[in-house]
Amino acid sequence: MVIRSRLGVSCRSALFLVLVSLLAWLLLACTGNTAQSTGAGSSPTSAAVPSPTSVATPRPAAMERVPIDIQRATLQDTGANQSELLVEVVLPDACSQPRWAVSRDGTRVLVEVWGERPVDVACAQVLREETLTIPLGVALHDGWVVALNGVQLDPGEGIVHSSEPGTGGYDSGLAIVEQVEVRVGEGAPAAVTLEVQGALPDACAELAESPSVTVEGQRITVLLEWQRPRDRLCAQVLRPFTRTIEVGSFAPGTYTLVVNDMETSFTIEPDQS
Hints:
- By secondary structure, this protein is α+β, with helices and mostly antiparallel strands.
- Helix content is 15%, strand content 45%.
- Strands 1, 4, 5, 7 and 8 form a 5-stranded mixed beta sheet that branches.
- A hairpin with a 5-residue loop joins strand 2 and strand 3.
- It is elongated.
- The chain starts with a helix and ends in a 5-residue tail after the last strand.
- The model is unreliable at 1-7, 34-44 and 156-168 (pLDDT under 50).
């Protein structure tokens, strides 16, 4: 009996030891797997994130202010208790664009007109005519004064004046003479006719109706003048002209002819008939 009891105890002890060893092995196995999983995840491979592509935003072109020629300005009523200003302008090139601003100082309406074009841009040198319609924001009546680029307007005639409206008058000067052709008729005395080619100084100037002709001995002086309304702002553009002038009949001889600042001479041969 004593022997059997010891054997039973020994078997139970061995079984207990086997179970403990098995549990320990299982614990070690689980701990290793967990460590491997943790180690694999401790340094994950991060996916490369592409950096955003920067898009260059174009900078607006720098602009420069340029003067423009004003040919005519006219005030008119729009019929809706408002008035507007029509301004005929000449732009200096293909790039310039007209701009304007309107402000008020008491009963004065101040209008400023100018041109703008991009800096450092090659532009075709072509004159461009445009008509600007500028709302004034008020209905003009007695007592109102409208000034365009510092020059007071005459509401009655629609012409730019630098003095009080209604002063009238004309500016004048000698036309530019480039070529003179002398035509001598037949007979004695022979009729002399001139064909003069030249240019007017701006878009407003017109040739005077009757040129001045003075004869002093063998010297003939012709003054060909232009006229334009006083104080009008005009495009500075040379305008060609051709004018035929009858200066009179002359006896045979050699004559000196002066037309404005051009001097030449011609000869009338004796009539051989």
